[in-house]
Amino acid sequence: MNPCRYHLVLTIDGQPVLHGWWQSEATTRHKRTTLVGEQGQPGVRITLADEEAGTVLTTWPKAP
Predict the structure, then answer these.
(1) Which residues contact 4 (CB under 8 A, 6 or more apart)?
(2) Using CA of residue 47, residue 48, residue 49, residue 55, what is the dihedral sign?
(3) Rounded distance, CA 61 to CA 11, Å?
(4) Which residues is 6 bridged to in the sheet?
(5) What contacts 19, CB < 8 A, 6 or more positions away?
(6) Could you write out the DSSP letters of every residue in 34-63?
(7) How many domains is the chain built from?
(8) For 31-57, what is each residue's pLDDT tens digit?
(9) Residue 39 maps to a domain
């Protein structure tokens, strides 16, 4: 298993400001909450990708 499989990117107003990689998807999802809380912050967007599969799993906040 790739120790850097799950990649979290935090952007503010479209500019990437923070990247993180974790082995566990659950840990990566938890990091989103610790970064911006359940409701998020204005201008902040977080993307969670599975680097091994090459797919975006989800984004926060959800697109309308």
Answers:
(1) 21, 22, 23, 51
(2) negative
(3) 12
(4) 22, 50
(5) 7, 8, 9, 10
(6) HHHTTT--TTEEEEEEETTTTEEEEEESPP
(7) 1
(8) 877 776 655 678 888 999 999 999 999
(9) yes
Q: Is-contact 24 8, C-beta < 8 A?
A: no
Summarize pLDDT for 7-20 with one digit per residue, the tens. 999 999 999 998 99
Residue whose structure tokens are 């797919």: 55
How many angstroms separate the CA atoms of 22 and 40, rounded? Answer: 21
Residue 49 CB coordination number (10 Å) = 19
Q: Which domain holds residue 22?
A: 6-60
Tally of residues, the chain: 64
Cα–Cα distance measured from residue 6 to residue 29, given in angstroms and rounded to the nearest whole number: 9
